[in-house]
Amino acid sequence: MSRAIFRLAAALWLTSxxxxxSWAGSPNPFTTEVRAAMAExxxxxxxxxxxxxxxxxxPNAVFVSGDEITRGAATILERYKKKYSDRAKMxxxxxxxxxxxxxxxxxxxxxxxxxxxxxNDEPHGRFTLLFRKTSSGxxxxxxxxxxxx
Length: 149
Fold this sequence. Notes:
A six-stranded mixed sheet has the order 2-1-6-5-4-3, covered by helices on one side. The chain has five helices and six strands. The protein is 42% helix and 40% strand. The protein has a single domain, classed as Nuclear Transport Factor 2, Chain: A, CATH 3.10.450.50.
């Protein structure tokens, strides 16, 4: 009996693993949608439109940077407006090296790099974003961003 259960469990695991591998390796419509959400976010930033930039965040999103945790899209918006109070501080944003890992049909994990090109410096770093599909589209529910030294 235990061998039958083991075989069944192994077969289920292999089937689900194979499905996950082929699903992750194939083009997924939502991967394109997540990339589009990030492209819209980048374009909004580069127009100086922090309000639109933060619309990609879910109302209950969590943002982690350094030793600070910011909760809620409204608070995240306030944080960005305080830190990037003018166009010179905002610079030009570029996202790159995006790795989008589907978790299921309604969630994706995004790993990538960010870079700000400004007149006197070029801060940059990495981020990990958890996106969820909502009735309003793909939204960031968790953002962990770090700056390189």
